[in-house]
Amino acid sequence: MSTDPHSPTPMSYADYLGLDTLLASQHPRAVPPQHDELLFIIQHQTSELWFKLVLHELRSARDLFAADELQASLKRLARVKHIQATLTQQWSVLATLTPSEYATFRTFLATSSGFQSVQYRAVEFLLGNKNPDMLRVFDAEPGARDLLAEMLREPSIYDVFLQLLGRRGFAVPPEALERDVATPYVPHDAIVEVFHEIYSDPPRYWDIYETCEELVDLEDNFQLWRFRHLKTVERIIGGAPGTGGSSGVEFLRRALDQTFFPELYTVRGQIAQGQ
Ligand code: HEM
Ligand SMILES: N[C@@H](CC(=O)c1ccccc1NC=O)C(=O)O
């Protein structure tokens, strides 16, 4: 092998990007073949690729919060926000799939469902929607289950942000700082108070204030993705139950009530009412 930097080992575009594997990974199931199944597969695969990058960036953002590197963390979050915008826009491609077209291959999906997306669940965990019950979905896939179990035990980006606020001297209650991070997050009035203080004097707390707004942007973007999923699903399968065994659109509608950063929303109501 050459060590001369001017004549590096040859490598092609396809080698570097692993295109042999990537482009050989679309396996439509319908018999006879159905034209629109490739769209469905690629829409999911591209989403999973972006989820992979979101996880990479969010983990890093969380670890940078833990190291008090706020500016570097915000840079990561800025990238995540653009990926989320792309993921949300991408629904318009799938929305070209009509109910008749989807019906030509839906039965071949059998019991598979987005419920079983490990990376999606990992993003939810990382943002703070911890739910140990979700692990059961992966009982038949030990690798996936172990990865998620590990993510469940790691602190979320919100857990780490609250710890950072504690280090900055804000009165974050010990129950929030020392909580079992594998369990669902429980909101605290004292944290609403902390945010109230921060939002009452932005110039004094600028970097923290900006971070709070970045977190709200993240949640907002996440909800837009959920909403577009719901509306796309509605136009394709209407009120039919999902292949994953849920009520379908009704189930997806309820997910819109979930919040990752509850106190950041409660404080808004207080400010708006002059409290
Ligand atoms: C024709 C297109 C689609 C339909 C009809 C559809 C339908 C559904 C339904 C009904 C559910 C609820 C679970 C169930 O009972 O199956 C669900 C969940 C889910 N879908 Fe889709 N979906 C579609 C496309 C997509 C795409 C492109 C993605 C991108 C990765 C995706 C990701 C997910 C995820 C992550 C969940 C779990 C959501 C949660 O637990 O809150 N879906 N989908
Ligand atoms: N839950 C969908 C099926 C579905 O969308 C799906 C099936 C296999 C792999 C990914 C899927 N996407 C999201 O749920 C349905 O009920 O039609």
TrEMBL record:
Its needed co-factors are: heme
Q: Which InterPro entries match?
A: Trp/Indoleamine_2_3_dOase-like (IPR037217), Trp_2_3_dOase (IPR004981)
Transmembrane domains' residue ranges:
none
Q: Does the keyword Membrane apply?
A: no
The note describing how and how many cofactors are bound reads:
Binds 1 heme group per subunit.
Reaction it catalyzes? L-tryptophan + O2 = N-formyl-L-kynurenine
Q: Which UniProt keywords apply?
A: Dioxygenase, Heme, Iron, Metal-binding, Oxidoreductase, Tryptophan catabolism
What GO biological process terms does the UniProt entry carry, in alphabetical order?
Answer: L-tryptophan catabolic process to acetyl-CoA; L-tryptophan catabolic process to kynurenine
| Identification of the protein by name | Tryptophan 2,3-dioxygenase
Record the organism: Allobranchiibius huperziae
